[in-house]
Design brief:
The chain has 360 residues and is mainly α. 72% of the residues lie in helices and 1% in strands. The protein contains eleven helices and two strands, in the order ααββααααααααα. The protein has a two-stranded antiparallel sheet with strand order 1-2. The longest helix is centred in the middle third of the chain and has 37 residues. It is globular, with a radius of gyration of 23 Å.
């Protein structure tokens, strides 16, 4: 079928609109860091007080059973990671019992504006992806440009859900900022006009295999950003403990604790890993139909498998060895680096049977 060029221009206009709206959401999230309502800090303090009271009560019960009367439990002034690293609790996420809309309103005007902009941006972004698909009469991820615009759409929607679900407003400036940068680079450096697929991709397996890989990559995008935030907060916490940095960093105090960052990262990867696994399996089935073999160690296949191994190692280490903290985040970030290397280097510069990026 003939490509609808006019609808392709509409898709690009919606994508540019999404980029502008996302940028406004980043500005609003940054404004929340600088001018956020004190009520949130008070709510966080109340939550910390409840946690400390519960900790003191549990420690007190243990002391009554086996400790002497003059032994007092240590003050619970900070949390710690499973590896023993202290963590500032000042950024504890709010109570999840309150309804989402009320929690957003209570977080202050900056958060209301930021979430609204992020939601409108995601709507415009989704419209851009859909209209691109209608313009080319196929799934809109047949080349590198379409793949990046689709995965950033998945990342924005997934993070919007996770942010509202876990009240993680302060992470918006980092994740949405990364979405803006990635989408902006795609729009300026690798833009590809709507066109037909190469014959090798004209299969219903494109809708199965590439859709799964797009969803998984968009999901993995979120824990990768959270991993960098975690390592930064962890480094700052260790420097404070060693007397090499002054405590009370305003940005760190507003962020979730490193325990919460670690937990949110793990849950996100647990959600995305089965999708990636399904995508790899679907790709093998498509390869058998197209080339007569399930696996041929093509460069893209090889790096997709390496990525799978790294994320599997992360989950296995968490489940069996109890890895927490920096080591686990290094592994998952290495997995995302492998994924990005496959997209930006292997598919573009290394000749193979998957060289369909559309980037010259």
């Amino acid at each position: 079928m003939t490509v609808n060029v006019a609808l392709g221009h509409v898709s690009n206009a919606f994508l540019i609109a999404a980029l502008v709206i996302y940028s406004l959401s980043v500005v609003a999230f940054a404004g929340d860091f600088a001018f956020g309502r004190p009520r949130r800090a008070a709510a966080a303090a109340r939550g910390q007080a409840r946690d400390r009271a519960a900790a003191l009560a549990s420690v007190g019960a243990a002391s009554a059973a086996g400790a002497t009367a003059d032994q007092a439990p240590p003050p619970a002034t900070a949390t710690a990671t499973a590896g023993g690293e202290p963590a500032d609790d000042a950024g504890t996420m709010p109570d999840l019992a309150a309804p989402a809309l009320r929690a957003i309103r209570e977080a202050g005007r900056w958060v209301v504006a930021a979430v609204a902009f992020a939601a409108f941006g995601a709507a415009a972004h989704t419209t851009a992806v859909i209209t691109r698909g209608l313009a080319v009469h196929r799934a809109p991820w047949g080349n590198m440009y379409e793949f990046v615009t689709a995965l950033t759409c998945v990342a924005a929607i997934f993070f919007l859900f996770a942010m509202i679900r876990y009240r993680a407003w302060t992470l918006g400036v980092f994740v949405m900022g990364a979405v803006v940068v990635t989408l902006g680079l795609a729009e300026t450096l690798i833009y590809t006009a709507p066109g037909d697929l190469v014959p090798a991709l004209q299969s219903y397996w494109l809708d199965i295999h590439v859709t799964a890989m797009t969803l998984a990559t968009g999901i993995f995008f979120v824990p990768a950003v959270l991993g960098f935030v975690y390592l930064w907060v962890d480094r700052y916490t260790r420097r404070v403990a060693a007397g090499q940095a002054a405590p009370g960093n305003g940005i760190v105090r507003r962020l979730p604790s490193i325990e919460q960052l670690d937990r949110l990262t793990y849950r996100t990867i647990v959600f995305g890993f089965p999708v990636w696994t399904f995508g790899v399996i679907a790709g093998a089935i498509w390869a058998d139909q197209a080339w007569g073999r399930y696996w041929g160690w093509d460069p893209v296949e090889t790096w997709a498998f390496i990525t799978w191994v790294l994320y599997a190692a992360f989950l296995h280490a968490r489940a069996t060895a109890g890895w927490r903290g920096r080591r686990a985040h290094y592994v998952q970030l290495l997995g995302f680096a492998s994924l990005i290397f496959n997209i930006l280097v292997v598919q573009v510069f290394i000749a193979g049977m998957h060289s369909y990026s559309g980037v010259s």
